[in-house]
Amino acid sequence: MKQEERTIRFDHDLQIEAYRFHGIMQKFPNHFHEYYVIGFIESGQRKLTCKNKNYVINSGDLIFFNPFDNHACEQVDHKSLDYRCLNIKPDIMRKVAKEITGKDDLPYFTTPVAYHSEHAHLLHHLHQMIMDEITELEKEETFYFLMEQLIEEYCEVAKDIEFGKIEQKIAKVCEYIEKNYTEHISLEELVEICDMNKYTLLRSFARIRGITPYRYLQTVRINEAKKLLEQGIKPLEVAMQTGFVDQSHFSKFFMDFIGLTPGQYRNIYIEYSK
């Protein structure tokens, strides 16, 4: 079995994160991110679930997650996974897309998987330059040329969604969770907000958001925790500020969702701030 390695870099030139997971066996639960994820499988096979649809991904396949796309994955071949990805915040994506297309719109990836993509080689090359902390012109050129190709081939402009009554109620529940994630939130509170019974709320929330209210709450907490860790705040303090019972509870969820410990994630930003 390969020795497990988890590496993260933050590229200040591009303002994006790069992850590399080598030899991991970890199952990732259903969750979402507030940023775009563009990744590819170097080796191994995984069952990916994204927005309630299942895919089997292999070496050479690209994956795309828009902000708030719920997704989960697990191994299916009993072999370890080698995986690389870029994480791009919406404001950075908007800026890059505007420079490429001339339009001030957020791109929307229409499919989470591109099988055996011809762009995997270029993505690998860019990712390795970030891992090697290259600051040459070639890195930024490669990034823009890659994004041009991905946007042209796999994206459309994000459209405003007209919500029906049920969707509006679920949106209110999400808004309440996002504003009160540091507090203890009960199902009873959520029921009062949306005027549904408990079962209808749970079923409607999972159908519309692709994730349960509890998992949504934990994901919001983890996303907020990342922002605090990026500021250099210690994991114990972050745990207390984001509604977790204790640091152990926080660390477990962070590792499950992100694939790194809170300390590992915090350290990369501390190194760059020196």
Automatic annotation (TrEMBL):
CDD domains: cupin_YbfI-like_N. Residues 171-268 form the HTH araC/xylS-type domain. Signal peptide: none annotated. It comes from the Bacteria. Keywords: DNA-binding, Transcription, Transcription regulation. This is AraC-like DNA-binding protein/mannose-6-phosphate isomerase-like protein (Cupin superfamily).
